[in-house]
Design a protein that fits this description.
By secondary structure, the protein is an alpha+beta fold. The chain contains 16 helices and 17 strands. The chain is globular and about 80 Å long.
Amino acid sequence: MVLLWRFSKKTQDRSKSMYHLSIAIDRRSTASLTEQISTGVRNAIRDGRLAPGARLPSWQDLATQLGVARGTVRLAYEVLRDEQLISTAGAAGSHVAAQPVLPMQAQRGADMRGVHAAAHSGVIPRRGAAARPGIFQVAVPAQDAFPYKTWSRIMARSARRAAASPLTYPDRCGEAELRAEIAAYLCIARGMDCAPEQVFITNGHAGALSFALQVLSLHGERAWIENPCYPVSRDGLALAGMQAMPVPVDQEGMQVDVGMAVAGDAALAIVSPGQQAPLGVTLSLPRRLALLDWAAQAGAWIIEDDYMGELQLQARAAPALAALDRAGRVLHIGTFSKTLSPALRVGFLVVPQSLVGRFAETAATLYPAPSPTVQLAVAEFLRSGLYLRHLRHMKRLYGERRMAIARALDQLGARNVPAGLSVLLQVFSDGDALAAARAAGMMPSALSGWFAAPDQAPQGLLLGATNVPAERAHAYCARLLASVT
């Protein structure tokens, strides 16, 4: 039996374009009905017969037309959703993904060089701005747990407030309301004692880091950096004309004594003490004190990257390193990208009181803050208590999801260890494993790419837990292991 099914979709010019889909159902085939349906839709997407954003028929409608059970169609759609070819949104229906993954052979040919480059850079290649988070992708919040309805209402109110504000240029250091809310939040949640004027609103983490390096103006100087570390930090130092000095990390965080031995005269240290990126360890109190003593005596600066510090899964979040700073040497970077949404592009930088004037002057010229509408929305989210409630919910959810991945890998006989909001899967060659995982439609990160010398680094795949529902963890892990072993 062959079904010819026709439907319409509005294009940008508001005209109607017709798409044709043929699904062959052969009840004598050894392939299941679910597999035949998913194959038919998959081929139509990859051949271009179904365009990005096109709406698919409901389970009931397609089941009626094909003469199969509704559950059969539902399972086929779930397979396609897991492959990130379609998105499902309940009553809103199912649609072809805005940026569907490439066919496997095309990925292996045209994009394989990019895959291998990702293994050495630690950064997953971009799949398009509209793409949903990939399976096992690290450093992205849960797509299915974001409070869309609440956030939409808050954004609408903020847009009205911004539109009704005086017609003048916004404060380039950030909206006073948001700066005050962040200062209050940091006092309660991170143990910091800072005034609103010390808080500068930035365009995400990268904006805060470049802002700090610009003002500190340490061109030609040496800087400690964790090994492994977030690759953007290493790249930022290179752009600032600084020499990165990798300092190893163990179960207590950055080995401060090693840093002093190899580069005691460094002018800067970049550290993620709350939840080290990517290993997830917390900088111990003795090492925090040693790091602060070194900075005070050497006249060096410390940039504290609070990489998901609020989302420690084992215990309550440790106080920020800046909370212990008595010499005014710590600059604290935070962001809402990992806790709310990367699309907000809202970060913040807290500087010592002695640097407020220099940062305000630079912000007025080179680093304007994000849109006031988004800033006001984040301020309301903080003020209402919704942010702290959201963090508590995320910690429980992420803990369950990470545990489900680890349990599934244990059951499948794969060696693994927890690593912050990820699980580290041990593999022989993470470059080859990453290429295979990408070809299978998954988006883990190669551990070696986070090291200063990837060719000499430990091998492993970082499996982000945030977007892996517990009920799908075993199936995802089985598919991953089948592709990389």
